[in-house]
Amino acid sequence: VNWYGAHMPQMVANGLNTRSAEEIASAIADLRFNCIRLPFSLDNVFGNFSVPSPKASLAANPALESESPLKIFDATVKALTDRGLMVILNNHVSSSGWCCTEWDQEGLWYTDRYPESAWLEGLGFMAARYRDNPLVVGFDLRNELRPANSVRPTWGKGAESSDWAVAAVKGAERVLKEN
């Protein structure tokens, strides 16, 4: 199951306006799924943001309305893992928003706003944050690589700025170091 939304401008997982995180986790478990991919943005990690419309986005979770996007992400992970569901963290984008065009500037693992060093720091931060939760079982380093700023991702060839093989190893090493 992919529970998207925290990487979007509302900065919280979709559905928290209609049901509690615990109710959603229970519904997923009742359907006999066992693992959730939970996307986040680097804005969730580094940004000093608040949820833009907390009363709307979190209507069914009023206790979370004053929390930061990262604390709400924590509560979402907790709700899932408390129900025995495994979680795969997914660095979906750097800047919160919809993805996946050549023009969104999110096609590579780095952006002008978040260089590779910030991407690696964000991966490490999230790995360390959940390392004591045995049901956080995986890390999707980046969503759907594609061209950005006329740079096309490569695998094992080309400049280091386009070589996902090199970057993926760096990302994996950072996650493993913090885990």
TrEMBL record:
Span of domain Glycoside hydrolase family: 17-168
Hydrolase keyword on record: yes
Single annotated GO MF: hydrolase activity, hydrolyzing O-glycosyl compounds
SUPFAM superfamilies: (Trans)glycosidases (SSF51445)
Annotated GO biological process: polysaccharide catabolic process
Keyword vocabulary terms for this entry: Glycosidase, Hydrolase
Keyword Lyase in record: no
Domain of life the protein comes from: Eukaryota
Family: Belongs to the glycosyl hydrolase 5 (cellulase A) family.
Protein name as annotated: Glycoside hydrolase family 5 domain-containing protein
Organism, scientific name: Polarella glacialis
